[in-house]
Write a sequence for this structure.
């Protein structure tokens, strides 16, 4: 009986691939084994310039009212020297170091020591212990999904302090923004360097490590797939979500408090940025279990790209709109405010519904309804390294029939709304949409390259049925 069931299960697995299938994962998994010159050059440029870009943006707000051109003009005309700008830059302070240590320690405590209780009373929310995708070594990691709870506790405490306890000012983040930048950098570099050393000397799973032999590439893109300390402290889940994404909404609240302090009011643009980005952050935590199946967790290794990126790039550059609005408080006319709100909500709706449609389609193996109808799809097959043939389906209904990555399009519309809330006086708040367009277009091409080599001629059938990538009729 047991043998019969096992055989049946094995047959089903062949015909119904899942991300928890080791064979499947081997072919799709991970970053490159060999480094080409273009990748190496891009990585060296990023390692050199990404920290400078963050510094330049934050410094230009601190010293030049968020103008990106004035510092350059000053330097090029000899009006100022680099040393003048540097000498005006706030240094690391004991206060900032204390705040940052407390912040990270608090998030570690929430992550490690408070098991999720939200799934017990929030209908539809998936939390508690969940399984991730299989790693190349065939390991299925367990994760304690408690990000929503961490976010709620942190924000309840933030508001309790702001309105009742007054232990610290809600402008604390803005007031220490540059000293905190040094702390975030120290953590970002420390965790990336630790991950590199750990990958060499005491990896969580030696079979899940990739070495290219190129120091810079390995440092940037990571060696270990899922570095962990103990059974539960997972570097990717912790650093991707907290402290960076939990902080995102707190940083915005601190900017709003600063506006209130400086101008006696919070502008509608600041409220819009807080609300729209708040929805995006809450969506992330509501769907944290789904996030275990995205490219970040299923394919990327943990190196400087994720470690430093989560500690520095994300909290500092994803929040530029709010920072800008502290220096330039924009009050939008009603029509413009409604327009920005609608664009943001439409973007979010497309982003969420598209992701949900694929999730539902894949979870039910096509036995579901998309927009009230049975979904259409293209049958496809691929082979694993040992030659076993697997079958899968690519949906051509719903938003997946409009374009091959309409979830990215929704994300981009939402991102554009945050930027438009800031008006048109400066380019700085538009950095986000420029960056997201490059990131998601590159991601789309990267993903399609992978799907094309995985599905071969079936992918061609799919691209013939759904010819556009992001914008129907255009691209
Ligand atoms: P997707 O969720 O789009 O997943 C792509 C995979 O889905 C493909 O590799 C393929 O996998 C499968 N697939 C592709 N087409 C179809 C189809 N028609 N039917 C069924 N399955 C299909 O990619 P991401 O993980 O990159 O993105 C997840 C979300 O995260 C996106 O909404 C994105 O906007 C967002 N994001 C946000 C970022 C930010 O910084 N704010 C950064 C990155 C992403 P298979 O091999 O299984 O067939």
């Amino acid at each position: 009986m047991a043998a019969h069931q096992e055989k049946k299960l094995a047959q089903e697995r062949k015909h119904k691939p899942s991300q928890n299938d080791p064979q499947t994962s081997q072919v799709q998994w991970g970053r490159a084994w060999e480094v080409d010159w273009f990748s190496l050059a891009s990585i060296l440029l990023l390692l050199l310039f990404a920290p400078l870009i963050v510094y330049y943006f934050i410094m230009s707000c601190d010293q030049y009212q968020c103008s990106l051109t004035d510092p350059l003009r000053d330097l090029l005309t000899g009006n100022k020297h680099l040393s003048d700008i540097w000498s005006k830059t706030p240094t690391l302070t004991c206060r900032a170091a204390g705040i940052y240590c407390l912040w990270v320690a608090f998030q570690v405590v929430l992550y490690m020591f408070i098991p999720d209780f939200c799934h017990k009373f929030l209908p539809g929310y998936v939390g508690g212990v969940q399984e991730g995708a299989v790693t190349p070594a065939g390991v299925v990691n367990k994760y304690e999904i408690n990000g929503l709870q961490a976010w709620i506790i942190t924000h309840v405490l933030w508001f309790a302090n702001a309105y009742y306890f007054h232990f610290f000012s809600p402008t604390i983040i803005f007031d220490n923004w540059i000293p905190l930048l040094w702390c975030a950098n120290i953590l970002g570099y420390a965790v990336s360097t630790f991950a590199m050393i750990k990958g060499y000397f005491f990896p969580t799973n030696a079979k899940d490590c990739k070495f290219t032999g190129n120091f810079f590439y390995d440092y940037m893109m990571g060696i270990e797939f899922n570095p962990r300390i103990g059974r539960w402290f997972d570097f990717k889940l912790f650093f991707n979500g907290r402290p960076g994404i939990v902080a995102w909404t707190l940083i915005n609240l601190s900017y709003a408090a600063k506006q209130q302090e400086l101008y006696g009011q919070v502008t509608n643009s600041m409220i819009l940025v807080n609300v729209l980005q708040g929805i995006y952050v809450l969506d992330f935590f509501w769907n944290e279990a789904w996030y275990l199946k995205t490219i970040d967790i299923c394919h990327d290794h943990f190196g400087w790209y994720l470690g430093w990126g989560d500690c520095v790039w994300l909290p500092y550059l994803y929040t530029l709109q709010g920072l800008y609005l502290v220096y330039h408080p924009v009050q939008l006319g009603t029509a413009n405010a409604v327009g920005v709100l609608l664009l943001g909500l439409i973007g979010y709706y497309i982003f969420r519904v598209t992701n949900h449609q694929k999730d539902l389609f894949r979870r039910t193996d096509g036995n579901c309804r998309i927009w009230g109808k049975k979904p259409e799809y293209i049958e496809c097959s691929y082979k694993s390294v040992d030659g076993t043939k697997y079958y899968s389906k690519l949906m051509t209904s719903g938003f997946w029939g409009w374009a091959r990555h309409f979830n990215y399009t929704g994300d981009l519309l939402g991102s554009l709304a945050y930027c438009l809330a800031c008006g048109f006086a400066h380019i700085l708040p538009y950095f986000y949409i420029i960056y997201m367009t490059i990131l998601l277009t590159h991601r789309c091409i990267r993903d399609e390259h992978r799907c094309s080599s995985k599905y071969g001629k079936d992918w061609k059938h799919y691209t013939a049925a759904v010819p556009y990538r992001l914008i129907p009729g255009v691209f």
About this structure: The pocket of NDP is lined by residues 28, 294-295, 351, 355, 358, 361-362, 392, 394-395, 400, 405, 407-408, 411, 443, 447, 451, 454 (CB under 6 Å). Residues 334-363 form the longest helix (30 residues). The beta strands are 128-134, 140-145, 228-229, 233-234, 377-383, 389-395.
